[in-house]
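// run 5 | inverse folding | seed 20
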């Protein structure tokens, strides 16, 4: 009788220990990427804030926009992706850079002020622009792109944000034409830049011939 009672007791204790270990491991996870579902639309625009004032897609006429949705307190995914983008961007000529714009849209406006975003973006490249806004303005951008994010606000200041990790490529016609995953290498970003720039050349040539 004693053995039959002891066995279930140890099974319960073992189960509790496993549950506690799993819970602790989950607490240690700093950041999770969410897949999201890239969407297509006729025309994309936004009305967000930079350290230098309001910014819309109209400010990037004749430019290809490479837009990333994230936040500056991201410990790994965001800096890795932005570093790859800026690495590729630095390999462009000064003339080519005039037609490419990298943008970070923060989904964490409570901590990412426009001034902080400008400083953070400058760590990667001085041409990179950091944008944010109120929750409604941010969600309008996120929803239009088909991106997703979840703020894990367990504490007042120290919290993480799970978010999709695509780089969204928007043409000068304000259309989403490509979504590049987090695993995109600097070489692949550079190939995308060159392909986009070649489309500009082809369009200019067609206009000249017509």
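// decoded
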């Amino acid at each position: 009788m004693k053995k039959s009672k002891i066995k279930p007791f140890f099974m319960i204790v073992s189960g509790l220990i496993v549950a506690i270990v799993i819970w602790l491991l989950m607490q240690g996870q700093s950041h999770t990427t969410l897949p999201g579902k890239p969407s297509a639309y006729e025309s994309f625009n936004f009305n967000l804030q930079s350290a230098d004032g309001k910014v819309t897609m109209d400010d990037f006429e004749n430019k290809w926009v490479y837009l990333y949705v994230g936040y500056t307190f991201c410990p790994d995914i965001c800096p890795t992706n932005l570093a790859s983008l800026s690495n590729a961007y630095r390999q462009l000529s000064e003339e080519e850079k005039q037609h490419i714009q990298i943008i970070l849209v923060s989904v964490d406006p409570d901590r990412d002020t426009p001034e902080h975003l400008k400083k953070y973006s400058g760590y990667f490249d001085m041409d990179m622009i950091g944008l944010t806004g109120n929750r409604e303005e941010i969600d309008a951008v996120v929803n239009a792109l088909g991106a997703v994010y979840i703020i894990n606000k367990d504490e007042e200041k120290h919290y993480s944000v799970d978010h999709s990790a695509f780089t969204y490529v928007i043409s000068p016609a304000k259309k989403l034409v490509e979504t590049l995953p987090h695993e995109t290498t600097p070489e692949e970003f550079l190939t995308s830049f060159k392909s986009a720039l070649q489309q500009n050349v082809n369009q200019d040539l067609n206009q000249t011939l017509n």
